[in-house]
């Protein structure tokens, strides 16, 4: 992403819902009498763990369908979910720790534990099972020294969810063995293809009666505000919250007061519903466009249609054999300006996810339409010359 995204004409790799400006944000607010004003506040460090206004808004969101109110003190504001995950991992794992991590997923969730000296075991999902996780498989992965189970729900890059029943089973297993759960919920609540009334609809990990659970999130993905760099750590365990706060003491101190103020405004009752409605509509519209493209190119690509989030994992092949996804993404970008993320390079290792690309379909609709039109033209010509993942032409 860092190397190529500024060069792409059609960035269909981005995992955020199409970004908005502060002016756009104010237009989405139901209260036009209370404009966003970030110019009058003195720019001190501010509240170290985050403003009461922002943390109150988050606490109310987590508590909306829970029997127990999440407290303001249960939340720490961080510079994005990436910093939230780092603080949790730095606080909880180290040399000699054993960690089980949902896979495939965002690389940070397993590479940071490894860098801290932990041994990481993958809890694998596969396309043939619609990217679902198996609780019996999890039991076989756990060890007496397992310290942490990491999940990503909704999931990047597949757009799958971990359904409620699986979460219930996960919590029971973790509780029985006294293992902490870290749930990266950065794509919550982008549930565009499942109703809250559906029995599989996944609640936050914090809505289960297990104190040793931590959720992380941010304003970047579902809320279109990656540029303000605001995320959070939330847990019902004061000990876990304090440990994360201590891990953060010598890194970021606090977030920008300006960012905090904008985030509180976005998550206020006057704004959040319109903002989410805008992004859910965008996701549903764009997903239908991507679905149509895939149906028209079934000779070359396949997928499990996403249920939530902003990304899809699409597998490309020639005559039944996976294409070299890295070569595909590179040549596609050079020929058309269309950017995807290669699955093997960005989400796998060794022989995992050959032929897969991550598509970020929640960009501006025009970008997606034009990008897929360019891809369709590429499929008629240059695609035939792509090498296969096994090295053959």
Automatic annotation (TrEMBL):
Pfam families given in the database record: Aminotran_1_2
Any one GO MF annotation of this record: pyridoxal phosphate binding
SUPFAM superfamilies: PLP-dependent transferases (SSF53383)
Gene3D superfamilies: Aspartate Aminotransferase, domain 1 (3.90.1150.10), Type I PLP-dependent aspartate aminotransferase-like (Major domain) (3.40.640.10)
Aminotransferase class I/classII large domain span: 41-370
Stored InterPro entries: Aminotransferase_I/II_large, NHTrfase_class1_PyrdxlP-BS, PyrdxlP-dep_Trfase, PyrdxlP-dep_Trfase_major, PyrdxlP-dep_Trfase_small
Keywords on record: Pyridoxal phosphate
Family: Belongs to the class-I pyridoxal-phosphate-dependent aminotransferase family.
Protein name: Aminotransferase class I/classII large domain-containing protein
Species: Ramalina farinacea
């Amino acid at each position: 992403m860092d190397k190529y995204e500024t060069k792409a004409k059609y960035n269909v790799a981005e995992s955020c819902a199409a970004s908005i400006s502060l002016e756009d944000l104010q237009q989405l607010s139901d209260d036009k009498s209370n404009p966003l004003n970030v110019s009058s506040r003195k720019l001190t460090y501010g509240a170290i763990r985050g403003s009461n206004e922002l943390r109150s808004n988050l606490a109310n969101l987590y508590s909306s369908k829970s029997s127990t109110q999440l407290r303001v003190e249960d939340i720490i504001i961080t510079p994005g979910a990436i910093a939230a995950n780092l603080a949790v991992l730095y606080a909880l794992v180290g040399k000699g720790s054993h960690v089980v991590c949902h896979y495939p997923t965002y690389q940070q969730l397993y590479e940071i534990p490894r860098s801290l000296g932990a041994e990481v075991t993958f809890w694998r999902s596969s396309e043939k099972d619609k990217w679902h996780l198996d609780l019996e498989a999890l039991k076989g992965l756990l060890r007496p020294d397992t310290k942490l189970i990491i999940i990503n729900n909704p999931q990047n890059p597949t757009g799958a969810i971990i359904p409620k029943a699986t979460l219930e089973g996960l919590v029971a297993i973790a509780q029985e063995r006294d293992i902490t759960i870290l749930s990266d919920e950065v794509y919550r609540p982008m549930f565009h293809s499942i109703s809250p009334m559906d029995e599989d609809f996944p609640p936050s990990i914090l809505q289960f009666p297990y104190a040793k659970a931590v959720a992380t999130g941010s304003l970047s993905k579902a809320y279109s505000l990656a540029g303000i760099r605001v995320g959070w750590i939330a847990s019902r365990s004061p000990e876990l919250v304090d440990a994360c706060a201590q891990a953060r003491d010598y890194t970021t101190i606090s977030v920008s007061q300006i960012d905090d103020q904008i985030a509180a405004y976005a998550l206020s009752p006057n704004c959040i519903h319109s903002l989410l409605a805008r992004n859910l509509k965008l996701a549903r519209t764009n997903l239908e466009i991507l679905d149509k493209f895939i149906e028209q190119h079934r000779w070359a690509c396949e997928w499990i249609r996403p249920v939530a989030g902003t990304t899809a994992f699409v597998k490309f092949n020639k005559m039944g054999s996976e294409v070299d996804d890295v070569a595909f993404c590179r040549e596609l970008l050079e020929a058309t300006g269309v950017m995807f993320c290669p699955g093997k390079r960005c989400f796998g290792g060794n022989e995992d996810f050959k032929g897969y690309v991550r598509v970020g379909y929640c960009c501006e609709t025009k970008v997606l339409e034009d990008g897929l039109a360019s891809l369709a033209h590429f499929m008629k010509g240059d695609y035939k010359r792509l090498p296969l993942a096994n090295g053959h032409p």
